[in-house]
Design goal:
The complex is a heterodimer of chains A (453) and B (282).
Chain A lengths: L1 H32 L10 H43 L5 H5 L6 E4 L7 E2 L13 E3 L4 E7 L5 E8 L22 E9 L6 E4 L5 H10 L2 E9 L5 H32 L4 H13 L4 H20 L6 H26 L2 H9 L4 H30 L2 H6 L17 H9 L6 H29 L7
Antiparallel strand pairs in A: 1-8, 2-8, 3-4, 4-5, 6-7, 6-8
Chain B lengths: L1 H20 L4 H4 L4 E12 L4 E12 L3 E5 L6 H8 L10 E8 L2 E2 L5 H7 E4 L10 H11 L5 H14 L3 H4 L12 H13 L5 E5 L7 H14 L4 E5 L3 H7 L2 E6 L2 E7 H6 L4 H7 L5
The chains are: A alpha+beta (453), B alpha/beta (282).
């Protein structure tokens, strides 16, 4: 709880600082128009110099404030754009539904049509839009791409809608997540018209139904466009990447921080790690495609990229961060603690695992959280090392797209889907925000050694 | 011929030095009384660049308090760290000569066994950032003791021995870092006692403490003397005079004088010891 308070306080201080900064620059701005009292007693050369300097200083001050405001405005604009564009798309259904649409074509059995009788149905539900002739209640809805669709929310007992069959003549029940793509109807039996759910509202469709005497067929669909598969793939990718990279990275950090002597080889390794952390991710993607895909496939017999190749590539990318952060947190631990442990007759390994590692835990956690953030945000490397096909679910054997790659895919092509991309971006932004808050919370705990030697 | 002469003078110096530092007393003659004996010990830091201990000859008696005094950088802490081989941890540190623990060369004893028998208390109180109980259990657990009853007994006994039991018995699960400085230092002593060592090395244990905490530690040392051999490094001459039985005075890496404490402070044999005691330098 105290940590939470600290975070709240530090956030407050940041805002106060920003506010004070603006106040200061505002004062400068006002001062710009004021003239010193000593101005009158100056000679002409001094006056000219005074004015020139005032203009120059004023210009610089205005410039810095403008640049600062511009930067803040751009960031705020980006976040606001993402949230306003994506928030209506971001629903629980969007998160949990499949990407591909499931289509259900319905037939009318042996007679090839349903005929409306003379009887009318009574509306037994609260639905407003109800066709008395056919005994169905309709409702307006939107799909995950913000298109209007029509749902069949209720079918009365005895309604012909209960008698739909599939291609093989088996009875079909229309479940809730299907919406009405189209209905084929006829007024006289000789004409034919298709009522498209995407073109008509529920009210219009109901009117058309009331006027029609025959139903010839129908097509129902699920919404699709969901991100369930990509989300699961991302979670799986995080799990496997950490599984591969954490033991390797922590092991390397222990070696560098505890066992290795400071020689040219150790220095070389450290330099290499520093260099590796600056390599662009697309090159890691290349390495993944060239090295890991053939390697994993020759062992497992899979083809193409899969979750293992992706997570191995990500592990390679994360190693420098993990090694560096962990080694730093190992170096922060006071030498007196390890000496005390050794003086008590503990072996070096016992000291490492009982004293060094527990105290380096905050650093390890920080690097883990940073790594998770990086895995979520990575797209370029994964396009090559894992795959860019959007899946309906996660699978070990095939390389489906992660969330970031999902954005890459749906923004490509002829019709970029900005709303859906923004909705995914909101998820990523929130996760990254939560992670960075956690990192801050943990790094507060790291400070407890600062006083000790 | 000239070289030969030089060697001759060297040998003479060594003999001369050891006359001042090895005591010709009855109790030093019996090898069973001696915990540590050093013969011709030299120590170099930085791969031989810095000669920090020069030809040290000293015997440490069992169940006595031996104090090492001397100005900063004179090598007293360095010699102390030789006794439990903590100098091995420093890169480029080399020790030559014989150091024997209970008649056995310390380089032939397993480091871990040696460190369980020779405990060490450091200058800064350095409890582990864990509970008081776990701080004390740390050493025994590393030796493979897992039985909870045994561990609880060890905790109780070592806290009582270090005169800390009454103050912390009701909060054994509180963090070791939550104690005051003096309590932390006594916790470190308790942690060392928990290993049931023969020798306790203390490297300026009171230099970071206030006078009252110092007094408590000094009383504790007088108690501990009955069970353990204690070697204490201190800057404080009064402290050495108060608590120790034997005092060794170091300067610039040399052991200048080693004698019974009363004798040393009353009648220093060496001019340098006299100057140091009377406060003419240092």
């Amino acid at each position: 709880m105290t940590n939470l308070k600290k975070i709240v306080n530090s956030t407050k201080e940041t805002f106060v600082d920003i506010g004070l900064g603006f106040k200061k620059s505002f004062k400068n701005f006002i001062n710009f128009f004021k003239v010193d009292k000593s101005f009158k007693s100056m000679n002409s050369k001094q006056k000219r110099h005074y004015i020139a300097r005032k203009l120059k200083d004023g210009g610089i001050n205005v410039g810095t404030v403008c640049f600062g405001l511009f930067t803040v405005a751009m960031l705020i604009w980006m976040v606001v754009y993402i949230f306003t564009t994506g928030s209506s798309t971001l629903t629980w259904e969007f998160i949990t539904s499949d990407y591909t649409k499931e289509s259900l074509t319905l037939y009318t059995g042996e007679k090839n049509y349903f005929e409306a009788g003379d009887l009318t149905f009574e509306n037994t539900t609260n639905a407003e839009i109800f066709s008395e002739k056919w005994g169905v209640a309709l409702e307006n809805g939107v799909d995950n791409m913000q298109n209007n669709i029509v749902y069949v929310v209720h079918i009365e007992d005895g309604s012909p809608f209960n008698d739909f069959v599939n291609k093989d003549g088996e009875a079909v029940e229309i479940s809730d997540n299907f919406y009405c793509n189209y209905l084929s109807v006829s007024k006289t039996g000789a004409d034919f018209s298709q009522l498209n759910g995407s073109e008509l509202t529920a009210e219009e469709m109901c009117q058309e139904l009331e006027q029609s005497n025959y139903i010839l067929g129908a097509n129902f669909m699920t919404k699709g466009e969901g991100i369930k598969g990509s989300l699961l793939t991302t979670l799986m990718l995080i799990g496997f990447s950490l599984l591969f990279s954490l033991p390797l990275g922590i092991g390397a950090a222990i070696y560098l921080g505890v066992y290795a002597k400071n020689g040219p080889i150790t220095k070389g390794i450290r330099t290499l790690i520093d260099v590796t952390s600056g390599i662009p991710s697309i090159i890691f993607g290349l390495a993944g495609a060239v090295i890991f895909i053939p390697f994993v496939n020759s062992i497992s017999g899979l083809t193409g990229g899969n979750i293992f190749t992706g997570s191995l590539t990500m592990a390679l990318m994360l190693l420098p961060t993990i090694v560096k952060t962990t080694e730093e947190s190992i170096n922060v631990i006071p030498k007196s603690l390890t000496q005390a442990s050794l003086a008590l007759g503990a072996s070096r390994t016992q000291t490492t695992f009982k004293v060094v590692l527990p105290n380096a835990m905050p650093g390890i956690l920080t690097s883990t959280l940073l790594s998770i953030g990086r895995i979520i945000g990575e797209s370029a490397a994964l396009v090559f090392a894992m795959g860019s096909m959007i899946g309906n679910t996660a699978s070990l054997s095939s390389g489906y797209a992660s969330l970031a790659v999902h954005i890459y895919v749906i923004l490509g092509g002829e019709a970029p889907r900005y709303a859906a991309a923004c909705a995914i971006a909101i998820i990523i932004l929130i996760v990254v925000l939560v992670l960075s808050l956690l990192v801050k919370l943990i790094s507060l705990r790291l400070n407890r050694f600062k006083g000790a030697q | 011929m000239i070289e030969f002469e030089n060697e001759q003078t060297n040998v003479e110096q060594k003999v001369d030095n050891s006359a001042n530092t090895l005591l010709d007393k009855e109790e030093f003659k019996n090898p069973e009384n001696i915990a540590f004996s050093c013969r011709n010990v030299d120590l170099y830091y930085d791969y031989g660049e810095k000669h920090s201990l020069k030809n040290i000859n000293i015997d440490i008696l069992k169940n006595k308090v031996t104090a090492f005094i001397g100005p900063s950088g004179c090598g007293k802490s360095t010699l102390l760290r030789c006794f439990d081989r903590m100098n091995d941890l420093i890169d480029g540190c080399k020790v030559t000569g014989d150091i024997k623990y209970m008649g056995q060369d310390i380089n032939e004893i397993n480091t871990i066994y040696l460190r369980t028998k020779v405990g060490m208390v450091f200058q800064q109180p350095n409890p582990f950032p864990m509970s008081i109980r776990n701080n004390i259990c740390y050493g025994p657990r590393c030796q493979g003791i897992k039985n909870k009853d045994t561990l609880n007994k060890i905790v109780e006994q070592s806290l009582k021995d270090s005169a800390l039991y009454d103050e912390v018995s009701d909060r054994l699960d509180a963090s070791g870092l939550s104690l005051s400085g003096g309590q932390q230092q006594r916790l470190c002593i308790a942690r060392t006692i928990a290993m049931s060592p023969d020798v306790i090395l203390m490297d300026e244990p009171t230099s970071a403490l206030d006078p009252i905490a110092t007094l408590k530690i000094e009383e504790l040392i007088k108690e501990l003397k009955k069970k353990y051999t204690i070697i204490i490094v201190t800057h404080n001459m009064q402290q050495a005079a108060r608590i120790s039985d034997y005092t060794a005075f170091f300067m610039l890496g040399e052991l200048v004088e080693f004698n019974e404490t009363e004798e040393f402070f009353a009648h220093p044999r060496d001019k340098r010891s006299e100057d140091y005691i009377t406060g003419r330098f240092g």
